[in-house]
Amino acid sequence: MRLNWLLGILFTTHLFGLAHADITRTIAQVKSSVLIVGTFKATGSPRFALRGAGFIVSDGKSGDSNLLVTNAHVLVQVADEEADTALVVQVKVGKDEWQMRSATVLEVDKVHDLALLKFEGAALPSLKVGDSTQVREGQSVAFMGFPIGGALGFSPVTHRGFISSIAAAALPKPTAQQLNSKVIRSLRSGISFDIFQLDGTAYPGNSGGPVFDPVTGEVLGVLNMVFIKGTRESALTHPSGISYAIPSEHIRQLLLRKGDQ
Question: What is the pTM of this model?
Answer without folding.
Answer: 0.80
